[in-house]
Amino acid sequence: MSVDRARLDRVLNPRSIVVVGDKGPGYTWLSNQSEFTGDLYSVQVDEKEIKGIEEKGIPNFASLDKVPGEIDLVICAVPRSVSPFIIEAAAQKGAAGVHMFTSGFAETDEPEGIALQERIKEIATESGLALVGPNCMGIYNRRLGVKFTGAAVQGDGGSVSVMAQSGTHTIGLTLGLQAAGIEVTRSISMGNVLVINEADYLEYLIDDDDTKVIVMYVEGAKDGRRLFELLRSVRGKKPVVLWRGGRARAGGRAIHSHTASLASSGDVWAGLYRQTGIIPAGSADEVVDTVAALVNMTPSSKRNLALIAMTGGQSVAISDQFERAGFEVPRLSQQSYDRLAEFFNVIGGSYQNPFDAAGTVRGGEENFKKLLDILEDEPAIDGGIAIELSTQGYDKNPKWLDATLEQLASYRERTGQPVITLSPTGGVMSASGASEAAVKAGEAIAARGFALYPSFARGADALGRVVDYYAALEE
Amino acid sequence: MTNPIAEARADGRTLLTEVESKQLLHDAGIPVTQARFAAGADEAVAAAEEIGFPVVLKIVSGDIAHKSDVGGVALDLADADAVRSAHAAMLEAVKATAPDGTVDGVSVQQMAQPGTEIIVGVTTDPQFGPVMMFGLGGIFVEVMKDVAFRIIPLEQRDAKQIVREIRGYPVLEGVRGQAGADLDAIERLLIQVSDFAWEHREVAELDLNPVIVRPDGALAVDARVVLAAEA
Known about the structure:
Chain A has 475 residues and is α/β, with parallel strands linked by helices. Chain A has 18 helices and 17 strands.
């Protein structure tokens, strides 16, 4: 590791925070910490700003050395030209580390920014300061209420951690996961990775007991070799969902071999994915969809699914999407068909697999229970169920959906198979995504521990990525 | 035994000749066709007799990149007379098509039996260091770019997977009643090349192109080693 582990631990789990240089009217960084469970201080010398800070009830000091007690984290929000002095002061005060929100360094590609960054690196390296950034949004810690946006939740729980080379994506992924009902335990915006690099953060998250799933957004690797070795070491221990953005340039070096001329960075990353068993994702949506499946679903490497749609058209669409994503939709045994024939409404319905089931399951809880019992006994189905759930009218009559979810939860428990729920936006049996009924239904579905997808394609892809992951672990 | 890397360094070269490349790889236990340098016709015949007929003759010149374009490759030479006449014809042809090229001599090489062509290579990635490439040879690599990569060092599982990852894998399994290629030999070769590159970090690039795979083994018939520029 590039920094002392104990110091990094204090920075990521601070008991005391000092914000240096925050400004009104919003006082963004102090306001972000309004639910912080530890001691919060401010350092500001601008008289115009001090009044507003004191009105918030936050003790303000003229310099870092005046702040009482030990400092775990300094949030540095001063202009870049002043920032080396703050870093120096933080080092002298013996702070564990600094999150540098300040930007305008090497990312500008101009001499002044590069020189300032070098100066900061020198101070931090000499003093052992754990420096996050610069040019980043810093850290989020759910339990302790350390935040980079007020919209992030403070509270217990959380099992997913996010580390990203972009502040926007750090916040976007954190809030996107949160909106999907997934509790994020900590997030790290890495910025220019001047002192602590992506491999250091990854190593920390691998060892972190609170982190069960790791989400990474990277554009390139500063210490690619160590990153590769860490990712290989985590194979089978913790799932890592990796979203790689951009295309790293290979540099202008002369190339003599065929091999070198063919080696694009994308190809090499694709090789890394296979070697390490990480789960690749191509967008923020894909990250959230995949994590939702990972967190909610029973681990499975099996691909024979029962698909339950509510209309004929959707039964074709759901099959197309799951087959495209690498799943099988097998015919069932004669015994199952005989049992289904006893009660299944075939007028406007079908039970071949895929199921066109509205006419039957709308007929009563008993029918749905019989259907699931038959699937439980069916040897051709080993990969679980993907089901279209209607959210229509849920706000007025939640009974049917609640009963269905209970049956599905019981099926999942009895069989150990995944159950994926889908509510395609615009589907005739579903309310539109934004309606009150849909929102309430979505919450009820999430509360039952099911991942809900707004399209068959997204559900199929998410389940596909997760099943690929568990299948690769068996190779 | 000479050390091809030390010799190239002493000459200030980063590009090893084919004979040097093959010697280096042969010493590491990697299956390559035997290759000997010969300054003239008599040496070429002696080398051929040592290797065993049939042989291949290739021109050796630092100035000629594409040997076959200038008539600098002669295949399947069955005896000493064939070697002598091919040698004379080759010098003639090269002189005619590339009059400015300095010819150092020829390399005499074991003639491989036909089979499925694959390419195995190593390059140095700016982020990850040594990486390996695998693909089918010929148009599969030239036109389709049907290749896959792994970061070195490879584990057994990596070797097994990379062979099966390329789209052309069915060709290796054997199509239209043809016997399949020796997959174990390919996987063994990949691990050997991976270990070689891991132990020789001064090797920046390596092409084994092609390697000929038959139902009973794999043999590299051309090899090119490029060293990293000295720091």
